[in-house]
């Protein structure tokens, strides 16, 4: 009788345990740097493929309105994580904003000067006699003088027209400018979408200007209080990037599955394919995504202080702006 009662009790306990709800996933808000484009594919792919869910994360992806605005939202804890231009985040952090990069994804700069293939602008000297569209005070325009110095160009070698981001695009599209300063995987695809024409890009990184770009950032207090969640989020995001690298078209399609008005599959795919080579430098080619080197970050801080308007005190402690502590380790 005792054995029967014990068996029945065990069965009842097992039944009760089997119908208990699974522990709820952690709701996480990721705010992007801008309206969705190809660079953002891994986040959507990771969500669609259940990579975040497998880490116990219920991910909500929100479009942004610029890296500065997203940085402010994360600093204010209205978003858990942000995907932003890391040098932009540095400007806020050095002024006291409680924010840190928990992973730097784009470790090679996407900055470039670009124009239609038909313009035959392939190298710096081809810029001579042309008209360049810029957006005053943006990150590329601040680094532009260094590009000129590295390539032996002078501002008198070309004409300049200025305007906001859309005006800059329109200037090239409408023939008012021969080229613009933009990101190789972003503005080039917008021009392609609008005109159907291919674009040549002269990348700053090819001329010795290497600084980091986009990365994941979080509020420093949030990171301290939620170390396990941050590790799980960065683990999922690392896996999402690695999976997306192997399936660019599928990754791009995941954007459209979530947002049918998010672009065209061809340019979303091409934009993402142009992003992948920016993930690593020669020093990190055998490492998993996000594992930025101290030297890369130090070089970025130095360039930003000299050319990008970053407060000189940033050079005192470049490591204050980022951490690799929450990343999964090992080689790629």
Automatic annotation (TrEMBL):
Keyword set includes Coiled coil: no
Gene3D superfamilies, per the entry: Periplasmic binding protein-like II
PANTHER family in the cross-refs: 4-AMINO-5-HYDROXYMETHYL-2-METHYLPYRIMIDINE PHOSPHATE SYNTHASE THI11-RELATED (PTHR31528), RIBOFLAVIN-BINDING PROTEIN RIBY (PTHR31528:SF15)
Organism per entry: Bradyrhizobium retamae
SUPFAM superfamilies in alphabetical order: Periplasmic binding protein-like II (SSF53850)
InterPro entries in UniProt: NMT1/THI5, SsuA/THI5
Domain of life assignment: Bacteria
Residues making up the signal peptide according to the UniProt record: 1-24
Entry keyword set: Signal
Keyword Signal: yes
Ranges of residues in domain SsuA/THI5-like: 39-251
Official protein name in the record: Nitrate ABC transporter substrate-binding protein
Gene Ontology biological process: thiamine biosynthetic process
Pfam family, one: NMT1
């Amino acid at each position: 009788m005792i054995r029967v009662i014990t068996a029945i009790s065990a069965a009842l306990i097992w039944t009760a345990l089997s119908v208990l709800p699974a522990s709820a996933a952690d709701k996480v808000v990721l705010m992007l740097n801008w309206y969705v484009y190809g660079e953002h594919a891994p986040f959507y792919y990771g969500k669609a493929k259940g990579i975040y869910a497998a880490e116990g994360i219920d991910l909500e992806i929100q479009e942004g309105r610029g890296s500065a605005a997203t940085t402010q939202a994360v600093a204010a804890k209205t978003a858990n994580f942000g995907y932003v231009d890391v040098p932009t985040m540095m400007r806020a952090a050095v002024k006291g904003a409680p924010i840190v990069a928990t992973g730097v994804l784009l470790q090679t700069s996407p900055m470039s000067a670009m124009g239609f293939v038909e313009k035959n602008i392939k190298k710096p000297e081809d810029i001579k006699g042309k008209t360049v569209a810029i957006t005053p005070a943006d990150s590329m325009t601040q680094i532009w003088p260094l590009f000129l110095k590295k390539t032996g160009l002078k501002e008198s070698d070309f004409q300049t027209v200025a305007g906001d981001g859309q005006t800059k695009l329109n200037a090239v599209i409408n023939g008012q400018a021969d080229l613009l300063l933009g990101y190789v995987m972003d503005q080039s695809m917008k021009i392609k979408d609008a005109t159907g024409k291919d674009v040549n890009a002269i990348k700053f990184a090819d001329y010795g200007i290497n600084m980091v770009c986009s990365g994941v950032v979080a509020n420093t207090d949030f990171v301290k209080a939620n170390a396990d969640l941050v590790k799980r989020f960065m683990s999922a995001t690392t896996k999402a990037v690695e999976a997306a690298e192997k399936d660019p078209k599928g990754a791009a399609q995941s954007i459209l599955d979530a947002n049918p008005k998010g672009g065209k599959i061809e340019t979303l795919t091409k934009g993402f394919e142009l992003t992948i080579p920016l993930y690593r430098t020669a020093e990190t080619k055998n490492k998993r995504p996000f594992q930025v080197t101290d030297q890369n970050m130090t070089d970025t801080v130095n360039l930003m202080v000299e050319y990008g308007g970053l407060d000189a005190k940033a050079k005192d402690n470049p490591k204050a702006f980022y951490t690799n502590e929450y990343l999964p380790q090992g080689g790629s």
